Amino acid sequence: MSERRASDMNVIVGALVVDAVLVVVFAIVGRASHAEGLTLAGVWGTAWPFLAGLAAGWVAARAWRHPLSAWPTGVVIWAAVLAFGMLLRLLSGQGTALAFVVVAALTLALFLVGWRAGAWLVTRRRGTPRQRVTTPTGSGRATTTPPS
Predict the structure, then answer these.
(1) What is the C-alpha separation between 36 and 53, in angstroms, rounded?
(2) Minimal CA–CA distance to 29: which of 39, 43, 44, 41?
(3) Helix, strand, coil % (nearest 5) of the chain?
(4) Could you tell me if 86 and 104 are in contact, meaning their C-beta atoms sit under 8 angstroms apart?
(5) Which residue of 10, 40, 81, 147 is 20 to 30 Å from 120, comparing CA positions?
(6) Residue 106: CA count within 13 A, CB half-sphere
(7) What one-character-per-residue DSSP string does 18-39 give?
């Protein structure tokens, strides 16, 4: 595997891990704020609907193509996490009170879109070029083009 592909794969896996950790942090903070137990089973029970939404969001956004993009990648992932998470909570008999939906929407937006916007600001300030994808030209050479 080339250094470039390994680097791209590290960015993709890193972004997915950050998303998953933030969804679990969301579940932990929610449970702690309601004095619910912070057992592994309890955190899993709260987090799994949102983690399923995260998987759906990554597929819907094809996030592996632009994992650090706040728009549209981060926004699509956020919407999927929120929608699927709430639907799965409802179907599994967990609460979906309006106040919870509003707090979840704001918190997950801050987490899932916010870290990407922050990463963009940091890379922009450092003068780091946008993530680019290398594609073959058909002539035996590879050209670097901005992601589409």
Answers:
(1) 23
(2) 43
(3) 70, 5, 25
(4) yes
(5) 81
(6) 6
(7) HHHHHHHHHHHHHHHHTT----
pLDDT digits (tens, 9 = 90+) for 41-80: 999 999 999 999 999 999 999 999 999 999 999 999 999 9
Q: Of 87, 100, 86, which is closest to residue 31 (Cα–Cα)?
A: 100
DSSP 8-class letter at 144: E
Output phi, psi for 69, to 5 deg. -80, 125
- Are the C-beta atoms of 115 and 21 separated by less than 8 Å? no
pTM of the model: 0.83
**45 vs 88, 90, 93, 98, 146, CA distance in Å?**
11, 13, 11, 20, 40
